[in-house]
Amino acid sequence: MELSPIILAQNLKAEAEKFLAGPGNHNGHPTDPRQRAFGEPIFGYARASDPIWATFKKSVDLACLTPVEAFGNVYPDADLERLSTLVFVLPQTTQTMKEQNQARLWPAEGWARSRGSHQKTVDGLALYLLNFLKSLKILAVIPDLLPVWKTLPSSSYGITSLWSHRHAGFAAGLGTFGLCDGLITEVGKAHRMGSLIINHRLPITPRSYGDDEFHQHCLWFNSGSCGLCVTRCPAGAISLQGHDKVKCSDYLKSTTPYIATHWPDMAGTYGCGLCQSRVPCAVRTPPKVTRS
To answer: Helix axis angle, 5-20 relative to 109-135, nearest 10°?
Structure first.
């Protein structure tokens, strides 16, 4: 008997929490095994048939994969009408945010450690869920781990990729974009994200915003009352016109020597994240301010 969408979603959440309670969610601290990389996850779900994916191809890049295209890259004969996209958000821990709020030019240790371990945790969780689904004989793929995945130059955004967890999160009702391009969710924008495309129906998360309301949760866009991420950015990569991904990427690379000097066990790691801390949308969706 096939699992109901609600039961499968509950099981996936329970399995994710089990993984995150274990060593896969350690932030890499060399002497303290209790330090977690991320806090409790939140989840959202979207249909692969949702028209929003076609909207993304037009507004972001025609090369971007839809869930149907990504899944079909591995399973071309699957029942594409059943496809759902699962998106998870892993918020930074309270301790990491406390440290990061005090940072001014370089990332705090907790932030650097979560950045250094995030791929292990995000990919580890995605693969853990993939194997759990496999045990239930449910096919799934992880879009950004596909062999075809790559980053691309973009005339509109500087840099783009074939799959965006943030756009998947928008589709799955988890949040909208801020001035710095971060996805502002109910747990804010200080987080990491992952996603899977699953050949099974899941309970769709309704969007509380319109399909063209990409910035509803951002105080700058909805009321002109913030813009603090502009002043938080040490690279000058954020302005009131938006986020310069190339300038941001260049600054991220420049943080590697600082991190290696202060925390030698993290040599090779880079990170910043200042725009995701000490701002109203860091750990929640800020209350909307009405324009006067």
So the answer is: 140
